[in-house]
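Ticket closed. Logging final result for Fur family transcriptional regulator, peroxide stress response regulator.
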Amino acid sequence: MDAKKPLTKQRQLVYHTVLHGDDHPTAADILERLHAAGHRISYATVYNSLRYLTEHGFLRELKVGETVSRYDARVEPHHHIVCRVCGRVDEVFAPIPDAYLHQVVEDTRYRIEDVDLVIHGLCPDCASRTSRDSAESAGH
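Final structure:
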């Protein structure tokens, strides 16, 4: 993180919106939350602030199979799991086994520089809804 250069007020607003959220918002989500809180800020300012914050290590930009990026204030190494039904994104801190990474290098001859694993599945809410729906349709 570039602690030498203070953040502008707009960048602080964008950063704190991501930091204090309980999800991984898109730029549109951030803009909506800032407007709902009474801040007058343009989409271009949000977008430019997000670019600055990611370039300087304050935020991580996530590409989790969607057409838009999401943002994460947790910048330490970790991975993500995405619900294929509702789109919820959660953090995964389980380490990737070294043996797996060694096998990837052996199979591909790549030099691994970064690992950003995205796992897809059903979140607990969607999984329980799917189970309930299956049970109800089996009973009819």
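The chain has two domains: 1-75, 77-140. No further action required.
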